[in-house]
Amino acid sequence: xxxxxxxxxxxxxxxxxxxxxxxxxxxxxxxxxxxxxxxxxxxxxxxxxxxxxxxxxxxxxxxxxxxxxxxxxxxxxxxxxxxxxxxxxxxxxxxxxxxxxxxxxxxxxxxxxxxxxxxxxxxxxxxxxxxxxxxx
Length: 136
Known about the structure:
alpha+beta, five-stranded antiparallel β-sheet
């Protein structure tokens, strides 16, 4: 189901709770909402659609990838960049890493560990920050 985008910074600044198998439908709502906003968005966190759960979705070159309880294990190649967000006005400066290793649960709630780089890594970092209540 396509959900409205939350713009309330107080709500977005709250740390999300861990996701469980009972939250798989939230992942589907994130996918649907990302698809509906694909012309202006390449990633979303569950709190952006009103759900305080640690779930993100990221557009990769091949698929839209849902991650439940993502956790960044390693970071390499720090750089400064500017980012925008559907939930926030304007563009803001932030620090990111070129290469990251992420542990997460996939759409079938199986644990995965994968490496990401470039724009996909940047987007994952942005959305993980969202889940931790960190706004750019």
